[in-house]
Write a structure and sequence with these properties.
Elements (H helix, E strand, L loop, with lengths): L1 E7 L8 H10 L8 E6 L3 E7 L12 E2 L5 E9 L2 H10 L9 H12 L9 E9 L4 E6 L8 E5 L2 E5 L2 H4 L11 H10 L13 E2 L4 E6 L2 E6 L14 H18 L7 E4 L4 H9 L4 E7 L9 H11 L2 E7 L1 H15 L7 H13 L4 E3 L4 H5 L7 H5 L7 H11 L8 H7 L3 H4 L9 H7 L9 H11 L5 H11 L1 H15 L4 E3 L5 H7 L15 H8 L4 H4 L10 H4 L3 H11 L2 H6 L2 H12 L6 H19 L8
Parallel strand pairs: 13-14, 13-16, 14-15, 16-17
Antiparallel strand pairs: 1-3, 1-9, 2-3, 4-5, 5-6, 6-7, 7-11, 8-9, 8-10, 11-12
Helix pairs in contact: 2-3, 6-20, 6-21, 9-10, 9-27, 10-19, 13-14, 18-19
Length: 620
C-alpha cells in the first residue's frame, strides 16, 4: 500500500520539476512513510511513497521493465500476482523481484489494457509506455483505491490524494458549487468533478488512456447484479458462500508483516474475525460500555469466545470534536458521515501495532444487508393500490403534521427510481435550494441516478438498490473513508468481501437469499452462524453508531457549531436564518436535525482548511 503522485506531458515550465514532484509527494507521506522513489525526465515525473507490505527489501517504485521503456507507479495489492507471474514467466518475461508491481508491468506488456480482466485486487496505477508515448492509468473494480487527476499547463497531474495535486504550481483552490449542491442530498462528493473545480476522480472500474495530450476514459467493469430466478438449494448456496468467504479472507492475508482486523458488533466484521488466522482485533466505542453507541462489550465477548485479542478504546466527546479538522484534512473532500471520525480512531489504534488490517466493507452492498433493502417488500402490498390514489394520499399527508406511517404513504407513492438515491438522503431538492446561497444547477439526485437505473431496469427493485449503492454510496462514502482514514495512520485496510471473485459469485445470488421479510443478508447470515454465536450472526444492521444526535443537544458542542454557522463564510454559502432554525429545532427536541447540521458543519470546517488557508497543511 502506497501513495502515488506525478505529472506527465511536454509543457515547458520555468520551475524545477523534481522539486515540484517532491513537494507533491511530501503531502502524502502518511500513505508511505517507509521509502520514497522518483523518476523525472522531460516527459514524465513519477513519485512514489512506500508502505512496505510485500517483498520488504525490494519492490521500490517507480519500477521499470527489463528494457527501461515501460515504467509504473502503483498503489494497492494484487492478490493473484503469483499466478500472474507464473503465466508471464511461461510466456518469456523475466522478473527482477517478488513484488506484485512487476506483474502489472509485464502484464501490460503482454496483454495491454486486457490486463485488467486478469488481476484480482485493489489498485490505482499509472503506466507510461515511452515507445508509444502512452499513459495507461486504471482504478480497481469497486473503487477501493482512489485516483484523482487534472490537466494543467498541458500536463496530466495525478495523485492518490487531492492535497498532493494542490501542491502543483498554479492549481486554483476554488469550490465546485455543483458538488456542494449534490452533497447536501447525498452527504458525500458524488460528481466526477470533485469539490475542487477542475480536479476529477477516475470512477471505479474505469481506465484512462492519454496520448498526444488527449484523454480517453473507458469503463472496463460494471458490477451489475444478475439474480438467478431458479435458485439452487439454500444449503448448497450457504456452503458456497462459506467457501468463498474463507478463500477470499485467506487471499487477503498475503503479507510479509502482521495482519489484524477491525471489529464492530456486526456480523460482517465478526465473520471476518472468525475466519482470519490472526490474533489482534481493534474496536472503538462512545459513552459508557452499556450504551448502544458502544460496541466494545460485544467485541470483547466475541474475541474471548474465539480465542483472539481485542484492543479497544472509548472515545470521549472532546476527542471526537477536536479531531474533526484533522479528519477533514485527510479526507480531502467533505464527508458528512459521522462514522468516518470513529474510523479515524480505530485505525489510529490499530496502527500502533500493525501495518495491515482486514475490514468488513462491502458485505452489505454485495449480500443485501442494509435495512432499507426491506422497503420494496414492505411497500409491495400498499403499491397494489392504483397509482393515482397513492399519489393523492401522499399529497394530502405531506401537508399534515408528522404521524406514524406518514413517510410510508409518501414513499409508497413513488417508484424505487424516484425514492432511492442511496443509503443517505439528507436535504430534499426543495430544502437544499431554500438554504443554499450559491449558484444552483437544479440537477436533481434522480437525474444523477437515472442512467444507472436505466442500466439495471429489468432487475428486481432490491437488486436495483444494490446497484445504485455500489455506484454511489460504496464509492463516495464507504470506501473513501476506509482508504483515507487508514492511510492517515500509514495503515493498509483490506476488504475481503469486496473481491472480484466474491462478486462474480454473488451477482447471481437469488433475491430471497439476499433479503426476505424476516432478514437481510439471509444466506450470508446462515453461513456466518456456523462460525459465530447466533446473537451475533442475527444482529440487526446498526452501521457505526456515533452519538452526534446527543452531543448536538449539549451546550458545549452546540456552541461550537453555532460559532461556525454565524461566520461570514457560512453566510456566503447558506441562509443563516435557516441555519439558526435547524439548530434551534434540534436543541429543543422539535426535530432530529443532527445529520443535516453535521453535513453543513463539516463542510465549513473543510472550507477553512482547504479554501481559506494560505497553505493547505495538517491542522494543529
Amino acid at each position: 500500500m502506497c501513495g502515488i503522485s506525478g505529472f506527465i506531458g511536454r509543457s515547458k515550465e520555468d520551475w524545477d520539476r523534481e522539486a515540484v514532484l517532491k513537494k507533491m509527494m511530501d503531502k502524502i507521506i502518511h500513505r508511505g512513510p517507509d521509502q520514497e522513489g522518483m523518476y523525472v525526465n522531460d516527459q514524465v515525473a513519477l513519485g512514489f511513497r512506500r508502505l512496505s507490505i510485500i517483498d520488504l527489501d525490494h519492490g521500490m517504485q517507480p519500477m521499470f521493465n527489463e528494457t527501461g521503456d515501460v515504467v509504473i507507479v502503483f498503489n494497492g495489492e494484487i492478490y493473484n500476482h503469483l499466478e500472474l507471474r507464473e503465466d508471464l514467466i511461461a510466456k518469456g518475461h523475466v522478473f527482477a523481484n517478488n513484488a506484485d508491481t512487476e506483474s502489472l508491468i509485464h502484464g501490460y506488456e503482454e496483454y495491454g489494457v486486457d490486463l485488467l480482466s486478469k488481476v484480482r485486487g485493489m489498485f490505482a496505477f499509472v503506466i507510461y509506455d515511452m515507445k508509444k508515448d502512452l499513459v495507461f492509468a486504471a482504478r480497481d473494480f469497486f473503487g477501493i483505491k482512489p485516483f484523482y487527476y487534472t490537466q494543467q499547463d498541458g500536463n496530466l497531474v495525478f495523485s492518490s490524494e487531492i492535497k498532493s495535486i494542490l501542491a502543483y504550481p498554479n492549481i486554483k483552490r476554488e469550490v465546485n458549487e455543483a458538488a456542494l449542491e449534490q452533497y447536501m442530498s447525498f452527504q458525500y462528493s458524488v460528481l466526477p468533478e470533485t469539490f475542487f473545480k477542475g480536479i476529477f476522480k477516475l470512477p471505479a472500474g474505469h481506465y484512462m488512456l492519454m496520448q498526444n495530450g488527449e484523454i480517453e476514459i473507458h469503463q472496463y467493469y460494471d458490477p451489475l447484479m444478475q439474480p438467478a430466478k431458479e435458485p439452487e438449494s439454500l444449503e448448497k448456496t450457504v456452503n458456497e458462500i462459506e467457501e468463498i468467504v474463507h478463500e477470499s479472507t485467506m487471499a487477503h492475508m498475503i503479507a510479509d508483516v502482521e495482519v489484524g482486523a477491525s471489529l464492530s458488533s456486526g456480523v460482517d466484521s465478526s465473520y471476518l474475525v472468525a475466519e482470519f488466522p490472526g490474533e489482534k482485533t481493534y474496536t472503538v466505542g462512545f459513552l459508557d460500555k452499556e450504551s448502544k453507541y458502544n460496541e466494545i462489550r460485544y467485541a470483547e465477548s466475541l474475541t474471548a469466545e474465539l480465542g483472539k485479542k481485542n484492543i479497544n478504546k472509548t472515545i470521549s466527546a472532546d476527542e471526537y470534536f477536536d479531531s474533526i479538522p484533522k479528519v477533514m484534512y485527510y479526507m480531502d473532500e467533505p464527508l458528512a458521515d459521522p462514522s468516518c471520525i470513529a474510523l479515524y480512531f480505530v485505525d489510529e489504534l490499530a496502527a500502533k501495532d500493525i501495518k495491515v488490517v482486514l475490514s468488513g466493507e462491502g458485505a452489505d452492498e454485495f449480500f443485501g444487508g442494509y435495512n432499507i433493502y426491506h422497503e420494496p417488500l414492505s411497500l409491495a402490498g400498499y403499491q397494489k393500490l392504483p397509482l393515482g390514489l397513492r399519489k393523492g394520499l401522499a399529497s394530502i399527508v405531506k401537508k399534515l403534521p408528522n404521524f406514524k406511517g406518514k413517510n410510508f404513504i409518501i414513499r409508497g407513492s413513488k417508484s424505487v427510481e424516484e425514492r432511492f438515491i442511496g443509503n443517505a438522503n439528507l436535504f430534499s431538492v426543495e430544502e437544499r435550494e431554500e438554504i443554499l446561497q450559491t449558484k444552483l444547477t437544479h440537477v436533481t439526485p434522480q437525474e444523477l441516478t437515472a442512467p444507472y437505473y436505466e442500466k439495471c431496469k429489468g432487475l428486481n427493485d432490491i437488486a436495483k438498490m444494490q446497484y445504485i449503492d455500489m455506484n454511489f454510496w460504496l464509492q463516495g462514502d464507504i470506501l473513501l473513508k476506509a482508504d483515507k482514514m487508514s492511510m492517515a495512520h500509514s495503515l493498509e485496510a483490506r476488504v475481503p468481501y469486496l473481491d472480484i471473485k466474491v462478486f462474480e459469485y454473488i451477482k447471481n445470488l437469488p433475491i430471497d437469499y439476499r433479503v426476505t421479510d424476516e432478514a437481510t443478508k439471509r444466506a450470508f447470515r446462515i453461513a456466518a452462524k456456523r462460525h459465530l454465536p447466533e446473537s451475533t450472526a442475527n444482529k440487526k444492521k446498526l452501521g457505526f453508531p456515533v452519538p452526534i444526535r446527543v452531543w448536538l443537544r449539549e451546550p458545549k458542542y452546540l456552541h461550537r457549531v453555532e460559532e461556525v454557522f454565524s461566520s461570514d463564510v457560512a453566510a456566503q454559502y447558506f441562509d443563516q436564518t435557516l441555519l439558526t432554525k435547524l439548530l434551534a429545532d434540534h436543541r429543543d427536541g422539535k426535530a432530529d436535525n443532527s445529520r443535516k447540521i453535521w453535513a453543513i458543519y463539516v463542510f465549513l470546517v473543510w472550507h477553512k482548511i482547504y479554501i481559506e488557508s494560505d497553505e493547505v497543511d495538517i491542522p494543529a
